[in-house]
Amino acid sequence: LLFPVSNLCGKCRPRDTDLLQPSLNFLYCSLHQTTPCSQQRAVAVLLSNVSLLELLQKVLECTWLRSSPSEPAYLSSEDALLCSGWLLVASLLLYQHRYNTEVHQTLSLDLTKVLNAVIFRKKKPILLLAPCLVSIMQFLRAVLRQNFSSSLLVIVGQSAAQDATQPQPSSLQDAALHPLAMQQVFSLVVSLQNLLVHKDLLLSQAVVACLETLVEYLYVKNQDVALHVASQPWHRFLLFTLLSGGQKPFLQPEVLRLMTLFLRYQSSNIISQKEISQILQEAAEANLAELPEATSRALHLFLCQV
Question: What processes in GO biological process is this protein linked to (predicted)?
Fold first, then answer.
């Protein structure tokens, strides 16, 4: 089915949402819900389809043409298509790297626009819907994990307008983090913190995962910067906000993963022995067999880190 569905997508235009959105979802599910052997073949099929990759390029570019939705709680068909497009491209990046699959057509994206979609640098954010933000953060995680180096993707560091107004990296830190700049890193971290405060389950999972990958990327590039980002005092206030209200707040998956992140990078000013003891106490009193899978997995990682 991958052959006819991917060929059908390649013949569509981005405005053919009723046909494209379920088709891209099918391709996405086909990549994730199959055996490793079949997965490698599926990646090869999709990456050999030049028309499909050209279509995906057009779909992603529609992100920057979308205005702020008038009803933030409503996911339109165009927004749903964007979500599917970003998720599929993120998966293709991941699996192309894993299997070293031959690429017949590259995708080109402006990194600044991708970051600004999450950072909300403009007065009106491009996207307000949680699924759209989650999809873009999944893509951002994929490129961070590959150090912005992929044979499938061509990353443009700055938009043309910014190239004319902003100087090139002026510090050793910016040069080490290239194509990211220190200002972009801190803006991204603040925006991720703000998204966490909303306590939206879908957003929280994506935000914490993105923050984990970002700090890992920074640690490889410049350990001092990574430790500086992980020990920002605002993280402490963020934890207090996440822990307010609710039963057994320390056993929330996103809280456990944040605590694990702070422990990993030795942020003793963020997480203290008192918080560690409270988590251990709540875990000791909980019925581990009844914990949700996400909580069990996060608790396991936390205990291993301790």
Answer: meiosis I
